[in-house]
Amino acid sequence: MKLAIIANAVIYAAMFVSAVPGPISGSTNVAVRDPTMWYNAKLKKYFLFSTGVNIRLFHSPSLKGPWTRDGTVLKNCSKIDFGDRCNPWAPDVSFHNGTYNLFYSVSKVGSATGVIGLATSPSMKRGTWTDHGEVFRSRPGFIGIDPNYIDFEGPKLVFGSHLGGIFMASLRDNLLKPKYANMPRVNLAGGKDRAVEGAVVYKPKSSKYYYLFFSEGVTLLNGNKPPKGTEYKVLVGRSTSAKGPFVDKNGHKLTEKRTPATGSLVLGSHDNIYAPGGQSVFFDPVSGADVIVYHYVKNNNLTAPATLGINYLSFKTGWPVIVKDPPKKQTQKPTPPKAKPTPQPEKGGCKA
Ligand SMILES: *[C@@H]1O[C@H](CO)[C@@H](O)[C@H](O)[C@H]1NC(C)=O
Ligand SMILES: *[C@@H]1O[C@H](CO)[C@@H](O)[C@H](O)[C@H]1NC(C)=O
Ligand SMILES: *[C@@H]1O[C@H](CO)[C@@H](O)[C@H](O)[C@H]1NC(C)=O
Prior knowledge:
Elements: H1 2-17, E1 36-40, E2 45-50, E3 56-60, E4 68-72, E5 89-96, E6 99-107, E7 114-121, E8 130-137, E9 148-151, E10 155-159, E11 166-170, E12 185-189, E13 197-202, E14 210-216, E15 233-239, E16 264-267, E17 273-284, E18 289-298, E19 307-314, E20 321-323
The structure holds 2-acetamido-2-deoxy-beta-D-glucopyranose (3 copies).
């Protein structure tokens, strides 16, 4: 009896301790900000990109490492004629029509203007990237920053932060420019002075929902922690359409200004993980799992550079949950190639 109680207590303690699993092993010494990742099945390698001079590039044979730093994406600065063009931010990797795409942003300290650029590669390997420069830049009402590509009724880009919030707009088929000169766009989240950023719209194969992940909060201020609860974290909303409206677990739209703020927590500070954010999400064909990639600060070393975090996600409950192991692979028939959706121009759009 007593033993059983002790055993239960131990099990309970174990459950409590493992409430949020730590990042999968192999990445605790990889310094990155705003990481984004994709798998090249031909090369059997994961490629990882991060904010930094000319966009930092890493590769690994496994999600568990070892990660090899392998130079940069851009040979010598972006072609974009603006701001700190040698130090692009917040890259976003994706695969479209046989080509790997890396959208990135260029900004200028003390300016609310940002420019989104694109580099492409047939393999993601070092030395294979071509920079195409500017796709579009900030306009009144939005900031051209934090790009995220998604194929939904044609190529779309999710972008923005702070001023105006997060938006989605159509790109041309070659992804090099907006589809419409006046850039009609849908407001997905934030705005009304709410500083949400780093948005990613992702649809798990196992779900009927699209999920909008975003970051909000502040990170260390001169090495000091901000007031508890205000630190950087990853939040989410979901929708049956990539164009929204996205709602949180309370059914509140992410575009609504409310107190407490909208968005349901996916990943906050826990154990040695402090102020996680700058996330991206991708499907890992090796484990068959949806994977979230982010940066965080180590609680036991607040002065160390931000570190790479990788975790498996489960959407079984209808909401993303960080899980220790990849959810069981679903046995599914090979899906036939997707039929091309009929293009649906947004209201008010005029062809560029
Ligand atoms: C790299 O770009 C910078 C900025 O345009 C330029 O000043 C420098 O000469 C370039 N370096 C090389 C090796 O091309
Ligand atoms: C897809 O790629 C092929 C080969 O590079 C190219 O000819 C074609 O125009 C591309 N299609 C689109 C929609 O970009
Ligand atoms: C903290 O991080 C710095 C930079 O990565 C490293 O040099 C130092 O050894 C770390 N300190 C501890 C206690 O881990």
